[in-house]
Amino acid sequence: MTERAANQAMLTLVVGTGYLGRRVVERIPAGTVVGLSRSADATLPMLETHDLDAGGPLPLTLPGQFRVLYTVPPAAAADGDPRLERLLERLDPPPAAFVYISTTGVYGDRGGAGVDESAAVRPATDRARRRVAADSLLAAWCRDRGTRLVVLRAPGIYGPGRLGTDRLRAGEPVVREADAGPGNRIHVDDLASCCLAALDNEKAEGIFNVGDGDHRSATWFATEVARQAGLPTPPAISMAEAEQSFSAMRLSFLRESRRIATTRMRTELGVAPRYADAADGIRASLAAE
């Protein structure tokens, strides 16, 4: 049996079967994957229902050898990540590998400069600080148990149903190109490929930035979606005007500027994004919708 076939035969526990997790579950052979979600879904027969916020025992018996993909974000009102802590308390025996979806937001604002995995974290928002806390918790937990840990730091995730077309139809403005920083994003199917590579590659360990490498701005992205979808071009306003009208959440993204380097993703994970040109990813997403 090849190394990849052996890895695929090991049970994979996918915690969180939402936008990303569902796509990963569907790409793992039936009988070797279990999804864990707070909501029942009849279209995923391998799904077990469990609410990490409520606690209680897991609804399955863990085998001697298994691996985990964790896609669930920390609760917005929490300090750290109690959901993750509750799961870790229930992983007995510990998994052979643990893949965690984090965020490039942990790097904070870099003034448009390039950022690789060696950069120190500088979280500027509560949600980024929660991710940093989760990273630290997992690193210690996995180290103490001999579990291989891969942290995938992901930028904005887009794909079918996540192109911002509702905003475009509503005529919401974007920041003018002159005030927009570089963009960082990844198509959901490319991120799913990164997850599978991180699970399968026994030599992969540590932190990996993931992304398509297409650093055109969020303004370009919205304008390109509008063009391809046949919607009106969004009006452009200055950053000063955006400060007066955009939500605090949206402004927090716009105030941070960086170019995420993804060399390790390509060379060590072996993932070359199918949608390295975001225009192709937009086209495929609209076709899938």
User: Count of DSSP E strands?
Assistant: 13
Question: Uncertain spans, ≥5 residues at pLDDT below 50?
Answer: 1-6
Class per helix and strand makeup: alpha/beta
Helical proportion, percent range: 25-40%
CA distance, first residue to last residue = 39 Å
Structural commentary:
Mean pLDDT is 94; it is low at 1-6. Helix 7 (218-229) packs across helix 11. The strands form 4 sheets. A 7-stranded parallel β-sheet has the order 3-2-1-4-5-7-11, sandwiched between helices. 35% of the residues lie in helices and 17% in strands. The chain has helices spanning 3-9, 21-26, 82-90, 126-145, 165-169, 188-200, 218-229, 239-245, 248-254, 263-267, 278-288; strands at residues 11-15, 33-37, 47-49, 66-70, 97-103, 114-115, 148-154, 156-158, 174-175, 185-187, 206-209, 236-237, 259-260. The chain is an alpha/beta fold.
